[in-house]
Amino acid sequence: MAAQPHHSIGEVLSLLQAEHSDVTISKIRFLESQGLIAPERTPSGYRKFYARDIAQLRWILAQQRDHFLPLKVIKKRLEEPGFTLEVEPLAAEESAAAEPTLFSKSVKKGGKARAAPDPVEAESEVEAEEAEDEFLEPVDGLSATELAEAAKIEVGTVRELDRLGLIVSIGRPGSAVYDPEAVTVAEAAAVFGEHGFEPRHMRMFKISAERQAGVLEQIFSSRLAKGGRSAQRARKELNELVRLGEELQRSILRRSFGDSLD
C-alpha cells in the first residue's frame, strides 16, 4: 500500500499564504500548541501534514479571518460531535507552490552560513524531508537572547517571565521564539526591576487581566461566534469595553494614591 502524500510545515505555509497572507510558521506552531491541530510527527519530531490537517488549518484560519472567532470557540466547534470538514486529497507529487529546495537553499544557524544537506546523502526519503523541515522552516519572532537584548534585561529574567506565564514562547525547545507582545512585557519588567520588583510581583497584573477576560468572554463569545456583522459589532464593543476597563482601573488607582498619580 502506497504511503499517503503529505507536506512539511514549510510547504504548508506556501499552500496557505495565497489565501491567508498573514499566516506564518509561528502561527501554525501556536495553533498546534493550543490543541487545534495535531500533525503527525516522525521519530525525530518533524511534522507531517496530511490532507485533513491542511483542511483543518484552512478552516481555522477562515473562522478567525471571516468571523473573528476566538480560539476557544473554534476548538469547541472542532470537538462537537458530527463536525466534518471538506478534505481535498493531496497530489502525490510535490506541491506546485514556489518553495526553496534542498538543492539550492543555504541558511544561517548560530550566525554562520551553512549549506542545506544534500538529499542524495540522506538514508531515506523521510530523512530528506526531516532535513528540509529543519533547514527551511522560517522562524518569526525573537529568541530569548534577542528579547533580552531588546528589553535590556537578563536572559534569566526572560526565562522567569516565561515560567510565570507572563510571556508565551512558540516553537520547539531550543528554537522557541517570542512575539511582539513579549517585548512589551519584557520592557515593563525592566522598569519594574529598576524599582526593586521581580517578575513574580508582576503576576498580579496577569491575574487581574485574566479575570477581566473571563467575564468579557462570557458576554461576547456567543456573539463573536455568529460571524458577519454581528461579530464585527461585538468586536468593536469588546475593544471599547477593554479601553474603558483600563481607564476605570487607573481611576481606582488614582483614588488610592490621591494626587500622586496624574
Estimate the mean pLDDT confidence: 77
- The count of helical stretches stands at 10
Q: What's the Cα radius of gyration?
A: 22 Å
Largest sheet: 2 strands, antiparallel
Uncertain ranges: 93-139
Globular, elongated, flat, extended or rod-shaped: what is the shape?
A: flat
N-to-C CA distance:
72 Å
Order of helices and strands: HHEEHHEEHHHHHH
Structural class: mainly alpha
Number of strands: 4
- Multimeric organization: single chain
Question: Describe it for me?
Answer:
There is one protein chain. With 262 residues, the protein is mainly α. It has 10 helices and 4 strands. The protein has helices at residues 9-16, 25-33, 51-67, 71-78, 125-136, 144-151, 155-163, 180-194, 203-226, 228-257, and strands at 40-41, 47-48, 106-109, 112-115. Strand 1 and strand 2 form a beta hairpin. The longest helix is centred in the last third of the chain and has 30 residues, at 228-257. It is flat. The N and C termini lie far apart (72 Å). The model is unreliable at 93-139 (pLDDT under 50).
